[in-house]
Amino acid sequence: MNIGIIGSGEVGQTLAKGFLKYGYPVMIGSRSPSKLEDWSKRKGMGAAIGTFDQASEFGELLVLAVKGQVAKEVLEELKSERIQDKIVIDVTNPIDETKTPDNGVLHFTTSLESSFMEEVQNGFPSVRFVKAFNSVSSAYMVDPPFESKPTMFICGNDNTAKEVVVGILEKFGWEAEDMGGVESARAIEPLSMLLCIPGILRNDWSHAYKLLRPSSKP
Ligand SMILES: NC(=O)c1ccc[n+]([C@@H]2O[C@H](COP(=O)([O-])OP(=O)(O)OC[C@H]3O[C@@H](n4cnc5c(N)ncnc54)[C@H](OP(=O)(O)O)[C@@H]3O)[C@@H](O)[C@H]2O)c1
């Protein structure tokens, strides 16, 4: 399955390398593809480079990994036939970068009554969005080196799309926890706020979530 990565920041580059490692053909997209040439030679060996539009055409499955504040605009600028009916892994977080965090707590552009993913799912009803990878630092997205397998919380309206994403997460070293439909992004997106508090306060980004269940019923 060809993977088109819309976004060339830390997340786009990390996931591009991860998909390449696990045998997927990848094109990574940027507004300025030429700036990725060096990266591609050094670290992204084998990744094709293109514009956002070219990456979205190349990918049978897409990864949306651009700055949260511009993510909707970026999707709107893609040709609609490029994304129609495709699975889009939504890694974004709707962080309001115009505001300084309050004692380590980020501001969001959304409230707890909505989420970024619901906005884009409503705007692009045929696209099969699956929220994933938004609640961990990019350094740990692929082959996370923790004592036990961390949990990636995912959600989305299309069960087949979620099955595909669960398969990818398992290859990348995660256990996936399906939290249901798109509305659950209201809870999954803010996990990034909690994740970032130790990072912003103490430069400690080395952690991931794990859902624990009892070995016997109480
Ligand atoms: N960094 C992490 O550890 C982490 C973890 C989980 C989730 N996330 C989320 O993942 C997303 C990507 O994060 P990131 O850290 O890789 O990088 P980022 O700096 O949030 O985003 C970089 C990407 O956004 C694009 N971009 C920036 N401004 C733009 C504009 N005005 N118009 C169009 N595109 C624009 C850049 O385009 P160019 O390619 O043209 O430069 C680049 O592809 C974010 O939503 C973030 O919240 C990040």
Task: Describe this protein's structure.
This protein has 218 residues and is α/β, with parallel strands linked by helices. 33% of the residues lie in helices and 14% in strands. It has a single domain, classed as NAD(P)-binding Rossmann-like Domain (Rossmann fold, 3-Layer(aba) Sandwich), CATH 3.40.50. It has helices at residues 10-21, 37-42, 52-58, 71-77, 80-83, 116-123, 159-171, 185-188, 191-202; strands spanning 3-6, 26-29, 48-50, 61-64, 87-90, 128-131, 151-154, 175-178. The model has no long low-confidence stretch (mean pLDDT 96). Bound molecules: NADP nicotinamide-adenine-dinucleotide phosphate. NADP nicotinamide-adenine-dinucleotide phosphate (NAP) binds at residues 7-12, 30-32, 65-68, 70, 74, 91-93, 95, 134, 137-138. Residues 7-12, 30-32, 65-68, 70, 74, 91-93, 95, 134, 137-138 line the site of NADP nicotinamide-adenine-dinucleotide phosphate.
Short description, anyone?
With 218 residues, the protein is α/β, with parallel strands linked by helices. Helix content is 33%, strand content 14%. The site of NADP nicotinamide-adenine-dinucleotide phosphate has 22 residues, from helix 1.
Q: Proportion of β residues?
A: 5-15%
| N- to C-terminal distance | 44 Å
CATH architecture: 3-Layer(aba) Sandwich
How would the global form be characterised? globular
Q: Which radius of gyration do the C-alpha atoms yield? A: 17 Å
- Named CATH topology: Rossmann fold
Number of helices: 9
| CATH domain class name | Alpha Beta
Helices and strands, in order, run as EHEHEHEHHEHEEHEHH
